User: What shape does this take?
Amino acid sequence: MSDDLDDLDDRLAELIGKPVNTRGPIVGPDPVNQPMIRHWAAAFEDANPVYTDPEAAAHSRFGGIVAPPLMLQTWTMATPVITGIHERGGSPVESDGKSSLALLDEAGYTATLATNSEFEIVRYLRIGDHVTSETVIAAISPEKTTRMGQGRFVTWVTTYTDDAGEVVGRQEFRILKFKPGTAGADGAGA
Amino acid sequence: MSADRKGTGVNWSSLSVGDELTPMQITVTATVIAAGAIASRDFMPVHHDREYANAQGAPDIFMNILSDTAYCSRFLTDWAGPDAAVRRLAIRLGVPVFPKHLLRYTGTVTGLSRVGDEGVVEVELRGATDLGDHVTGTATLTLPVDAAPV
Assistant: This one.
């Protein structure tokens, strides 16, 4: 048991500093565009006119339409393959079997809960900007007892760049990978 | 610089540390959660499929973190106005948010500084339900500052 855990810790330690996605940087499937911005603004009922009203945006500090700054992460989210998404544990796309986090899934940490997100917005995006993101694993915690069950915290750092390679934003994102059904009597669902 | 200040919002020069942001309330439903997840392109079934969420040990679908950052952004600029730029947002999640929860955002100005022709505003914010804090964090905004007064 403890040998297995030690072995897992060693294998996880090797992941630090490595890209999460072994296929390389993720290029946004679409450039920053008004339809997706409008959809986002409607879903969150965000009436800020600089996102959707060209005239108001032109008279604003920004001088034209800008994307919502916290929409940054959305531009490079994977286009999902809906068929089989449950069977893949909620993963939106087919795995190529080399995902760094597969190691955690194999060790029983199959469930995921996001816990922290920190953004630095270097510049606001405009219609036509094309975003690429690259995510590196920054830290993996030892196993901890959490409200959700036995789990490990995984911290990623994502750098977002434009077509010129200039950084437009950075994100530190932390998730809990946990073993479903291992929560204590006063666990989730309280 | 800009003479034509449109819309509502705050004037940086009039702000004080300790000022409260205009509170915001979200009446959370399954539709609110699912719409936010899909608009942010997060297709994890725990954010739209109750049976799947149950199988993961959650009592219902729950709000995704991209929606949380989206609502924080809206909370900040609803108060500060369309000329505000969000430069930094750091949030930590507490209790999950499920359908039928009332999510209330509150915030306080914790710092003010001036860099060139920009006014910097530091904010502490909180989104809470009856079960406790759902999201807590800090943010940095900038606002244009008019030419120095006479």
About this structure: The first strand of chain A starts at residue 26 and ends at 27.
